[in-house]
Amino acid sequence: MASDTENTPPSRIAYDQWIAKAFVRLIRRLPVSPNVLTACGMAVGIASGLLYAEGTRAGIIAGSLLFMVAVWMDHVDGEFARATDKTSKFGHYFDHVAAMTSYCAMFVGAGFGFRDTWLGYWSVPCGIAAGVSVALIFSIRLWQETVFGKETTIQTVRGGFEIEDTLYAVGPVTWLGLMPPFVAAAGVGTPLYLLYAIWEAAGHARRNRA
Q1: Are 94 and 78 in contact (CB under 8 A)?
Q2: For the whole model, what pTM was predicted?
Q3: Domain residue ranges of the chain, discontinuous segments joined by +
Q4: How much is the pLDDT for 210?
């Protein structure tokens, strides 16, 4: 869920978004639309999930690399749209859907891919629980933004990072062979964060009625 950096102070812009801005300066003259870049990022995310689902060492390593690219590309398309003055309401919503799809694909794919580890049968439901929770969190955030304004969903940047940047940890976690406990933790933690997202959105609704 890339944020708008057009009028944002430098201290509130994450490192990966700064890198995306620099990259866009190199590609801004390419004859493509921001939505094409969004679709490419989504395709990379889906490919990541499919590779994780293979369960092979080569597959999960490749999947982790592609997932990190997909997370980063969530910033590239928005920066490209702003740099080329091609922002659109459809593109904004498509960006949300693409990011949601990439994250869901990774979690569900990892759930299937690590069935033969100590997680056993629980790997699949943990991956699905995390993926479905991510989809619902994105949906709630999008509803909250639409009803109460974009400022209610802006992520706080601390030390050059925002909470979404924790997803980059999927790469090192995979390389160190720690994905099974990560999937297990995500299967529990992501639904809990979903409850927080619901509580936060409900809080905005209550304050709006007051």
Answers
A1: no
A2: 0.86
A3: 10-209
A4: 63
